[in-house]
Amino acid sequence: MKTVNPTPENPPVLYRLDEGVAIISFNRPDKLNALTPDMLKSFFEHVDIAAQDAAVRVILITGEGRGFSAGLDLSVIGTGVSKTTALTRPTPPTKQWGDDIGPGLGRYFGQGWNALITSRKPTIAAVNGAAFGWGFILSVHCDIRFAGESALFNATFARLGVPAEKGIGWLLPRLIGIARAADLLYTARRFDGREAERLGLVNQCLPDAELMPHALAYAKQIAHNAAPRSLAAIKAQIWSAGDDCYDEAFRAADHEQDLAVQTQDFLEGIASLREKRRPKFKAA
Questions:
Q1: Cα within 13 Å of Cα(14), Cβ side
Q2: Which residues make beta-bridge pairs with 191?
Q3: CATH superfamily, region 13-224
Q4: Neighbour-count burial of 235, counting CB atoms closer than 10 A to its CB (0-12 exposed, 13-18 middle, 19+ buried)
Q5: Is this prediction's pTM over 0.85?
Q6: Within 13 Å, how many C-alpha atoms sit on residue 88's CB side?
Q7: Cα dihedral sign for 147, 150, 151, 152?
Q8: pLDDT tens, 112-160?
Q9: How far apart are the first and last CA of the chain?
């Protein structure tokens, strides 16, 4: 199929909702979804839309064509554009769904590319093809990653003479350990989906044809069976507990438990287990 450059009729980022799953797709396939200022701005806007929509239970990120995202468009590098606010996240909403559920994340993720982490919705990356540079970073900001066998990852920064950008030097060691993160960042080497699975960077590597069906079915399983309020609390716990001591995390969990047992979601969860049926949790 012939690919074309994005236009108003063929936007740089696609968005659709499928049974509670917001699917956000980079849509510049002829350039392996290399990021432009407008594309990145649109991406973050769509993440914020999904984060604010109570009907969205899970956010799934992928790329159209043969690539997830090849990173920042090389035509932008060295032009000065990369230093402008055009390549940063637009001003996020002051209030989004779930802000008041679970531990506060503002003390850890108060600026920068925090949209995928602070959304209070589970985020999943389905990495098809190239995930280089900033594309690699965006995938790592997700909670869960699946990769196709043709996926290629590359933390390109040392080869470009820049530091580990956009928080990747903080995130990557927490995901795979210091030694493995240092290897990927120091060498700036490419590695495939199978190695990413061995490193623990992706949850599973799948045949290319199975990647999106699996990722979407997985996302829908969460959307159909997990309480949105519970997901918001658990996500906040996951991303905050690593910087808390055990006692702080324990107290936070006890506090959330006291709140949760007073909700209709808790009653519905218990009833659905007893009646051996799918739960019918509220969207808000």
A1: 18
A2: 153
A3: 2-enoyl-CoA Hydratase; Chain A, domain 1 (3.90.226.10)
A4: buried
A5: yes
A6: 9
A7: positive
A8: 688 899 999 999 999 999 999 999 999 999 999 999 999 999 999 988 8
A9: 41
